[in-house]
Amino acid sequence: MAERRSMHVSGGILGIFGGCLLLLVNNYASDPRRDFIPLTALGILLIIIAALIAYAGVLHSLTHAQLFSTLCLTVSALWCGSGLVYILVGQNVLRPEDLRSSLVPGLAAFTLALFIISSVALFVKKTVLFLIGTGISLACAHQIAGLTAANFGQSATAACHLLVCLVCAYYGLGHVLSRLTQGKVEAPKADLKQTAGLKTEQPQGCTVALSVGLVMNLLSAAVLVCPLLGVVPSLYVGHVPWLWTAGVFQLGMCILFYRAMDTLAATFYGFTALLKFAEGYSALLSSIQPFSPVPFPVVFSVLFFILALFSCQKNILEGLYQLFFVAYCISIAAQRQGFFQGGLQGVQGAIFVVSACMLLITTFNMVSSSTIPTGQNVFKAIVNRIQSLTLRAQDKELHTPHLGYSKYADAEVLGHACSVLAAFAMTATIGNRDPLSVLILPWVVMAGGALQLLCGSVAFARGKTFESTVFILYGMMWTVWGLTRYGGLYGETRGFHVAVGIISFMLFNGLVTVAALFLNVTWFLYALSFELILISFLLDAVNALPYGYDIGVTIIFGLVSFYCFLAHIFNSTFQSPQIPLGRALVKLGGVGGGADVCPHLPARKATSVHQIAEIMKNGGICGMPTDTVYVLVAACNRPDAVVKAYQVKKQAEDRPMSMWISSIKQLEPARHLLSPLLLDFMEAAWPSSISMVIPRGPWLGILGLEDAAKHIGTPQSIAIRNPDCSVATHLINLVGPIAVTSANPTGEADTTHHNQVYAKLGDKVDGVLCDGPSPENIASTVVDCTKIETGHIGFFRVGLIPKSKVFQIFEEVQNRHRQGQANPAFEYDTVIPGTETVPSQEEEVTTESGRGTGNSTPSTISSLESSVNTNEPL
Questions:
Q1: What is the pLDDT of residues 809-853, one digit of tens each?
Q2: How far apart are CA 508 and CA 506, in angstroms?
Q3: How many CB atoms lie within 10 A of CB 208?
Q4: Is the pTM of this model over 0.90?
Q5: 527, exposed or middle or buried, with CB in 10 Å at 0-12, 13-18, 19+?
Q6: Please, how many CA atoms are within 13 Å of residue 338, restricted to the half-sphere of its CB?
Q7: Fold observed for domain 600-819
Q8: Which of 396, 506, 586, 682 has its CA 20 to 30 A from that of 358?
């Protein structure tokens, strides 16, 4: 992990070095009359470098939330926005004289942002990051001066980029030197490691994403406040790259917040991303200056206010910050020309100042052990005084995925909020105006379309098949209908072809509505009201729409969506009371139809393992986590349970069950029937992800399997394993040897999460030990030990443990046996009554190592290979 993190840092530093070197060469070699590098080529190169830096910053933020990732993502946004401006000028979309008006607002925002980041880096003694941040910040400032006075700033800008190049080269050289000498020689101050007094990880949230999101708010505020201050004439096309860059980066931060299990922050930056795209849309059509319909911004301000209220549970400062966006949405509603009027731009001026302060506080608290107070526990203290309210614990259990492995939090809050925004935006009437002149398209296409698709993807990753289907289907519908109706494409297309497309969506949504009957009342009303909207679309397509019907059903859908938004955000915050979502209107017997679910117990608790052990001792079968995937287990001393597990899986004859033990001491009753070399090999190789196929023999009957022994292994052999998993080992210690098979129906994929055990096998399972996602999705290595006495081992399957490691262990065991040494672990203190002393079989062991080297013969695969199923978790 440390090596991978080091590679991410190196990649980010190398990207910054490349970008600064590119700008250094261009600034030194260019003159006011001619650019050394064509602007189009310069812009493309900057975007490519920005993408590489962003990649390094995002990967680094997933492991350690610290200053370096913030710097990388901020520089990436700077070069992405300026690169797009250069491309527009190079392609004559903008005039060369427009370069100043286009670049100055963005450069001013990044000058301040990088200055704040570098100041924090100086405080925490991050010399490299301080010099890089300061150098690029000064370069931006000098570039602004150069754009204002043609003969000033270009050489100074190049000098600042030269400083950054030297710092990056110094760090790179020091890093290479450290890697070559394995850390024995390091250049002074050339490391970016955490030092004393700095936080090594964040207990909650993703502070990197928070800082970068604040930088993007700073950027859009700077673009909108510059016309008010007279820095640029007005908002126009040249500002679109900055605004949409901010929007794209905030969508990226939204995803990072979902990975950090922070639903509230993800929702907030999803909202602000929508504002950025709307601002960019207005700048793109600045020639007609689209006006904003009044109902929609008011709805947006209500959503922002509710979100700000619930965000106070994180800290009061964040909730107060979000209230500025409530005022911003109200100003959009109050001034119909919105982003082009002074009142709204004045609110953005306030957001600029507050965002800069928030960036300083957030970045400082991210890396310093002495934090600036933000009112973290105020909300909790107030709620604790109210006896009727009980806060829900904000931990990972809150976002446990329903099915499968997921690294993301629940996205239903944002998904329903987007439905509210899209629905109320659709209520605006256009009349005889140009559809593009009304500010509806960004809300419908981005909120109802793009963000709903994002929420659908997150829901799919969490195993929420129904929710993901709904969000993706509705997102597609909002996108298609928004572009058709409000993109100027609808005028002459009414008729049969449009109706057919709408009918297709109605059929799909009809299936969704029927499926919602089995979920709850709220989801049913949600799907049904959207079906009414689709009917209004169909009636409009055939020119048969009754007056007011479309507005009425859209408002109904918007209100249902608002109820879902409020219920999910409230229920995820408070454990009691809960806003009801209703019960399923239709219930089925059996799995998923209200049947009692077997105990699902946390594996990290010893009491849970004991409870599962008691279930197995009484003849139950249970799902259990391992060092690979989840398995279905039964106690070997309960033959009825072994038969039950076999029947539950409906095993094919060529897919036998295997046996697991916690240590080879559990084979003590049968030790005299097993080879000393085999036992020694077991002791050396276990516990691990190695399964050994050994000859079947009378020793199986000693373990209490009776007639159920026929279900384990084949008539010739049996697979046995000692897993490298503390939970499994503890359970086997309590129960004794267990019969194991995969926790999924025959022929299906492996089970990688505890919720999948019950979903796949239903109420036939008597209990499940829950330990979240599987640590490894790679199966165990299956070694053929049926001919181990001849010095040969083979492989049925190479899994988590490589061949070379297995051969190394086997050779060491063979060498000990050649020298007459036995593993001390086999010198037991007790002798089993009635057993005879087994004579040493050392002389029967050949000198072949199984590697096929020297005089030895190559290791061979046993003829029993067909009897071992390599798809089972042996």
A1: 888 888 888 776 554 443 433 333 333 333 333 333 333 333 333
A2: 5
A3: 30
A4: no
A5: buried
A6: 27
A7: DHBP synthase (3.90.870)
A8: 396
